[in-house]
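Consortium newsletter contribution from the modelling node. Members have asked for a concrete example of what our holo predictions look like. Here is one, prepared for the adenosine-5'-triphosphate complex that several groups have been discussing at recent meetings.
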Amino acid sequence: MDNEKRFVTGLDVGTENVRAIIATVESDGSLAIVGYNEGKSTGMRKGIPANLAGPAGAIDKMLGDAERMGGYDVRSAYVSINGSQLLSTKTEGMVAVGTNDHEINDEDLDRVEDIAVSGRIPANRDVLEVVPLEYAIDGQGGIKDPIGMSGARLEIRANVISALTPNCENLKKATASADVEAERLIPSAVAAGKAVLTERQKENGVAIIDFGATTTSVAIYEEGDLQYVGVVPAGSNNITNDLAIVLAIDPDMAEEIKRRFVTGSFDSNKSQVIKIGKEGKMERNFERKEVDEVVKARLEEIFGEIRKHLKAARYDQRLPEGIVITGGGAKMRGIEAFVKQVLEASVKVGIPQGFGGVSDAVAKPEYAAAIGLAMFAAEDSNFETSAPKKSKKASKTKLKKAKKPGNLFKNIFSKF
Ligand SMILES: Nc1ncnc2c1ncn2[C@@H]1O[C@H](COP(=O)(O)OP(=O)(O)OP(=O)(O)O)[C@@H](O)[C@H]1O
Ligand SMILES: [Mg+2]
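And here is the predicted structure:
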């Protein structure tokens, strides 16, 4: 019955675009997408809120259509967080759990995670995820799930993802003033990876790169676990700006060239001329090669920075399943070839597919993060159940205090 359905919402708050996915969770746990929308974002700088009214207004405006389409009034959502403030820290911890015949329980895991986090993460940071990579019992390592095992000493090796507290609070405030409680904040690349990566890819080793307007973020998986997250504070808008400067054209024209005339082939014999601009307006001619060279220079810089992240995480040229790219920037023609050249790995564009409902309409790389957020929400059984459609307040401009997230150390991260 309809009123027994569980609804979940993913909200991707980007610098240029905000996107929402409203879905119902089917009996087998899969998602049926019932509402979606995208709109222009404002008040965000390189993935971080620069003011509250901008993103709040953008979310509010965009969400209205998604809600009407889904027949559902969104009260809470899983929300993306981004920016070079995101940090991935490898930590370790150890606790005594009792005598030799003590059976490890959830409480022991919480305690050892707390130890691994406390003192390792600066006080001005919120812990977004604790990903347990490996446990050891009485010095015996390589244990993935120690629950029920016997031992006296429990050790953990974990990956802790954190973000600056003010940025988390401001994001929650911005969504709260659009009447949406940010139930959980998840890095954009992690969210995108949820929607487009397979379990096999995550097991063998893969990197997901979310190529946005002003940020390019990367998440690395191996042995099924999230090993690393990093963000480069530059994105596809930098290409547009470079084209505008080098070709001495306005940004709108540069955007059109980026979307229509990049080839990515670097065929030196190709000197095909681009004609652009409406009749009566100034018509400009460029060689495609010239355009490709501007694009290539910027991509070398951005993905060169991504490569530094891969090196720092010790995954450079060590990813059997290669690289998957999402985000609006992934729609540029030839992106796979460009990135392959810089990162020397197999590259493909990640298209979120295989969902129910109106999923065909959002089978696009720029919707991966919003869909992944809805998927995470679907796995959280405490999150948003069916609710009768309520009428929204006329004004949503008043800021509400964002609710504190639940137990940050809850072990849902093992699913990341
Ligand atoms: N068809 C296309 N070809 C090339 N680039 C495109 C195309 N469509 C969108 N883009 C680019 O994608 C970028 C927007 O991507 P996206 O919506 O993922 O960004 P965002 O999430 O708002 O930004 P960020 O994640 O950096 O905060 C813009 O730079 C835009 O020019
Ligand atoms: Mg984005």
